[in-house]
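== Item description ==
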Amino acid sequence: MTTMPSIQIVDPTDPAVAAILDHMAATAPLSLGILFGGDRWRVVTVCAIGRTTDGTPVGLATLAPTDEQGGAGPHLIGVWVAPAVRAQGIATALLGALIAESRVRYGAYPTIVPVTHGGYRAAVRAASACAAAALAQVRPLIAPGLGCWLP
């Protein structure tokens, strides 16, 4: 892919969201369950999707007014980008769109809890482009650069 896909804010019931989730179910079922399964999906109120110029959905990020337990303010719940188009800034663009949307909907920057090194880098890039207050909400579960989970 040579051009950045368009990023749109949509409702979780949008057909493009269903298309991405169906694609994940067929090609990345573990990622689907980890990122968007169970209570994680139940709290989602808004999604950002990335679409190619022909309209094909290639990325999804989700936002909720709370975490899965119902507290702690707005949270980015999950981000997924199709493997064929990763490392092109799509995750950063999806996150940036939802950071801005969180400010509009909830009056606060969302907490972002990245669990991979790529997710951490995308979160830092997106939050840094917004404000220092957004960057302060990035709370990794990984030790950046060490390749291990934090306890």
User: Anything to note?
Assistant: The helical segments are 15-27, 29-36, 39-42, 90-106, 117-130, 132-135. Residues 92 and 122 are 5 Å apart (CA to CA). DSSP finds six helices and seven strands in the chain.
